[in-house]
Amino acid sequence: MSIPSLTRAEKTEGWRIPGSDKGWLNPFYERFLLKLLVRKELRVRYRGSVLGMAWSYAKPAVQFAVFYLALGVFLQLNRSLPAYAAYLFSGIIVINLFSEVFGNCTRSIASNAPLVSKIYLPSELFPWASALVALVHFVPQVLVLMVGAGLFGWRPSIAEGWWFLIGMLILLVFTVGLGMLAAALNAAFRDVENFVDLIIMVATWTSPVLYALAMVKEAIGGSIWWTLYRLNPITIVVECFHGAFWRPMAHALDESGASAPTVAAGAEAAELWWAGLLIAVAVFAMGTFVFERSKRKFAQEL
Q1: Shortest CA distance to 134 belongs to which of 90, 102, 170?
Q2: Does the structure show a pLDDT above 70 at 116?
Q3: Fewer CB within 10 Å: C terminus or N terminus of the chain?
């Protein structure tokens, strides 16, 4: 009696060629592994901590209170920008998320060198896990901002929800793209980590977080630098967040009208969300392309 031979499709059913994967779609196909990596990073971060995740709520709450007292009340910045603490904190949380995603993604491959070099795991999971961990820490900051802004009279609506969602989309697509590009380069050249720290510092001070956008317009308005400044995705995202949490209540709180130039300049910048999204998608495509071309060399480079 002869044994029937199996076809190639039957032999490989349920299996795949070693090293083959779904590319940048790996995080969606390997959700279980991604979840394990996120849990690992959270456990490592809060190992030995009594309060654990509670620190994610305590720190931003204290930070908001300090901004309100030290800057809004003592330095009297509420006179020029009403609810200055809400204005400042809505920009601070953007920079915090940008910094954590960008920095963690950059170090994700190098910091997981034992896993990358000894066993096969889709490399895309490491930067994506770092981004998800940053989002876990971002949620408490948003909740604190919502409560703090609510004390000034902020109330959510469809318009505010739109500005928040489009700002989040631009920020995540743009930052993950940058992070994957930096992660691929950092696997070969550790100097990239230092460049990323510099970029984060520059982004913090060149975005309308600590100061009003109207001041920038007054200084460089009408020049090519003003156009480039407004096309910076981080600037657009910050103004989207201002539109979600600060601009709706600025007019109601500002009896003197001192904040009118800032409100107008911010609304003008936020309307460029489509340009920010296009830039973010282009950066994500470039970062993904470089990462995919480089990932097969990670084990040797590490």
Answers
A1: 102
A2: yes
A3: N
The confidence score (pLDDT) of residue 236 equals: 97
- pLDDT recorded at residue 10: 47
Task: For residues 145 and 245, give the distance between their C-alpha atoms in angstroms, rounded to a whole number.
Answer: 8
> Three-state SS across the chain?
CCCCCCCHHHHCCCCCCCCCCCHHHHHHHCHHHHHHHHHHHHHHHCCCCCCHHHHHHHHHHHHHHHHHHHHHHHCCCCCCCCCHHHHHHHHHHHHHHHHHHHHHHHHHHHHCHHHHHHCCCCCCHHHHHHHHHHHHHHHHHHHHHHHHHHHCCCCCCHHHHHHHHHHHHHHHHHHHHHHHHHHHHHHHCCHHHHHHHHHHHHHHHCCCCCCCHHHHHHHHCCCHHHHHHHHCHHHHHHHHHHHHHCHHHHHHHCCCCCCHHHHHHHHHHHCCHHHHHHHHHHHHHHHHHHHHHHHHHHHHHC
Residue 180's closest CA among 276, 292, 94? 292
Instruction: Tell me: pLDDT of 145 over 50.
Output: yes
**What tens digit of pLDDT does each residue of 244-295 get?**
999 988 877 877 777 888 888 899 999 999 999 999 999 999 999 999 888 8
